[in-house]
Design brief:
Immunoglobulin-like; 5-stranded mixed beta sheet; 4-stranded antiparallel beta sheet; 6 helices; 20 strands; A2M_bMG2; YfhM-like; endopeptidase inhibitor activity
Length: 342
């Protein structure tokens, strides 16, 4: 066969492979045809095939809500796991960027919030399969400022009943928080634990059920917090006003970004125990020793009635603290197993 006939066969083979759903396999056929007799129509078909089925960039993402933002590019195939420095294959007007590869992603670290970046991924950038990027690809991405957000750094606190009581909160790009405090009654505490509410952040649909069936709203308000653009800020939320006159018990404080749809961002929830009693325990052969002291002054608390409860929520025994704040439960009460264990 002549060269032109062979080229025609290669092109027909490539077209047949595409119709059979094997577009990836048409690329070698078109490359062979191009090597035997370069032609504009074959070159155009090869470029089109690579754009649809070859090693190529399939998408880009910008992680701008992180304290250290990054731009990531997704490829159609897995990148080389080790032994290849991808930095020379990324051209940028910024010289302080770091390039890292993982699976199908090539990520650019060192970018800054509020800045625009033009990146060129250069011809020859290799895939693990041996394929390479056929031509330079330029992308432009803007790293926007971080979205306003709020979170609590801990899961649970014991908050003393004092005027200077406070909870820590972490915010990003916020100057004000909407706050709501709810109390869970003793009778509903077990349900809150069993239904997976206790000690966890709540989605909006969970919050609606929690507010309607489990907890009682006891206070609402706002808080002003300091901010620096795109910085993680830790603030101290004064709780004296919110807990004034409230009985000891389990509470949940919800902090939200003002004006944001709660189904998009339900905010953050901090669970805490409101009490002036601090309890510590020691277990030994002589039983369970319980020490009760005041959180406000660390003084022993006498006459405090304590109840030892099993995992099955049955009362195992009761004791009252003496003048040194000590109470003892008999050794036999702590030897149960399964649901009878304390």
């Amino acid at each position: 066969l002549g060269t032109e006939a062979q080229d025609g066969i290669d092109v027909l083979l490539a077209q047949a492979l595409e119709r059979l759903g094997q577009g990836r396999e048409m690329i070698p056929a078109l490359r062979l045809a191009m090597a035997e007799q370069p032609r504009d129509d074959i070159a155009a078909a090869l470029e089109d095939a690579i754009g649809k089925y070859g090693f190529r960039i399939t998408g880009t993402t910008v992680d701008s809500n992180s304290a250290s933002p990054r731009i990531c590019v997704e490829f159609s195939e897995t990148l080389v796991k080790a032994g290849v420095d991808y930095a020379p294959y990324v051209r940028s007007e910024h010289s302080d960027l770091a390039v890292s590869a993982e699976d199908r992603q090539l990520c650019i670290d060192g970018v800054q919030h509020g800045s625009r970046y033009r990146l060129t991924f250069r011809t020859g950038l290799p895939a693990a399969s041996g394929e390479a990027l056929a031509k330079d690809v330029e992308i432009t991405q803007y790293v926007r400022d971080r979205a306003p957000s709020v979170r609590f750094p801990g899961r649970a606190y014991v908050l003393p009943k004092a005027a200077d009581a406070a909870l820590p909160v972490e915010t990003v790009n916020l100057t004000r928080l909407d706050l709501r405090l709810r109390r869970v009654s003793d009778r509903n505490l077990l349900r809150a634990v069993q239904d997976g509410y206790f000690g966890r952040p709540l989605s909006q649909w969970q919050d609606e059920t929690f507010a309607a069936e489990i907890a009682q709203e006891v206070w609402t308000g706002t808080a002003e917090v300091a901010t620096q653009l795109n910085r993680d800020m830790t603030a101290r939320l004064p709780m004296g006003e919110a807990i004034a006159g409230q009985p000891a018990g389990i509470y949940a404080l919800t902090a939200r970004v003002p004006g944001v749809e709660p189904y998009d961002d339900p905010g953050a929830t901090q669970w805490f125990v409101l009490s002036d009693l601090g309890i510590s325990t020691l277990s030994g052969t002589d039983g369970l020793q319980v020490m009760v002291r005041g959180l406000s002054d660390a003084a022993a608390r006498a006459g405090v009635e304590l109840t030892l409860v099993s995992r099955a929520n049955a009362v195992l025994g009761s004791a009252v603290t003496d003048d040194q704040g000590l109470a003892t439960f008999e050794p036999g009460l702590t030897r149960g197993s399964g649901g009878a264990a304390p």
